[in-house]
Amino acid sequence: MPRIRPIRIEAIVLRQRPLGDADRICVLFSPTRGRIEAVAKGVRKPLSKMSGHVEPLSRGQFGLAQGRSLYVITDAQSLDPWSPLHDDVERMTEAMAMAELVDRSTDADAASGQLYQLLCQSLEALARTTAPEAVRRWFTLRFLDQQGYRPELDACVRCRAEVGPEGNGYSPADGGVICPSCHGAGHGQRLSSPVFRLLRYMRRSSAESTAQVRVDAAASVELERHLRLSLEQALDGRLRSSSFAEDLARAETIGRSAVKSAAESEREEQRRAAI
Amino acid sequence: MQRSPATSPTIARLIEAFHRLPGIGPKSAQRLAYHVLRAPRAEAEALAEALLEVKDSTRLCAVCQNITDSDPCGLCLDPQRSDATICVVEEPLDVAAIERAGVHRGRYHVLHGAISPMDGVGPEDLKVRELLSRLGDASVEEVILAMNPNLEGEATAGYLSRVIGAMGVRITRIAHGLPVGADVEYADERTLRAAMTHRVELERHEETD
Predict the structure, then answer these.
(1) pLDDT tens digits along A144-153
(2) What is the pLDDT of residue B76?
(3) Is B188 in contact with A266 (Cβ distance < 8 A)?
(4) Are residues B163 and A15, on separate chains, in Cβ contact within 8 Å?
């Protein structure tokens, strides 16, 4: 049998899952070979020299040898650990959403240099930004463009009339903006003027510039809904990691209500004792 | 696993049962099955009884959620332990590891997993609600988060720090850096950064005349 030569690739680690007692399967995303599953042997042992170099949401250089069914990582060197993504739970949540999108939309052995560049650029921007949500939304819009689901923002997707900023609708199923007259006829959901302008600005600007735009709470909710529905249309399903973002947003309220209910039950106990 | 016609169906069933255990490959499963076959009947019965007993008599401690024979468990009932600190861990085996090291004299709480957003595992799938109900008690002064230093552990610690932070209880997380016996040369950037950030001052030895 001819010996298969080991390969060397640059890749982003999208995710990991345990294998056996000491190993992990790493899902790598490379610009030249797309999505690759590879076994990192012994990385769950405390003295593993490789474990810190194969952490998810980091970029590295990997040596891979063909195993019986999966590749085996022979050596790994982290090139960019993007530490701020791991130190801050909000950045981490947005980074995981991006990684999940790429994980779900790429195939093995399919070169995808453009998407790799986009992910690298977005994770870089995410590691530096103070507005992680904005960077993830910027990534989502560009991801949709690259995957062939580019939302139309210049002309009505139903009648092809040019659209202005006021009175429009948005329909993920039809693929973009709906002019005021078609929207008036019951097509699409409301697309407010600030969100319409923001979507057009996001399309022509960098992640860093998008992160600097101040978005009020109502516009933020509306933009999130339009992007989520567009993604669900493209993926034919919901992102799993998006429910953690919702859990995280509710975390402080849960903590405060736990304190309140503990105080109430203490008062109830005191009342019963008094009786 | 493929069945060989040379193996009796009864043995093949046992081999398959062993093969389902974590870390047991097909060869090890075969060795274990033939060991049981050749062992005295009493040994096989003891194994079967132990397997059934572990399913019948263990349960989760209503307080710390660790696996126990008696509820509440020995660690929760021990009067020598402090109620002021709760060490939160992912798995029951983590409690065993920390107890072996003898480095914590407070209470424990076992979450039975870690938040893994990409796999759809959220806080409601873990024993988080049970932890929060324990923190209403004013005797708890500190929660020590002893999650694994990986993405899931970080997501879990990040979420818990938000929730518990809003309750006004002190939260700490166990340090991470270079493990004993490791080489600095092979350490990754994040580990080295954590090790540098959490460095400790060594005692100065003053020379005396």
Answers:
(1) 999 999 999 9
(2) 95
(3) no
(4) no
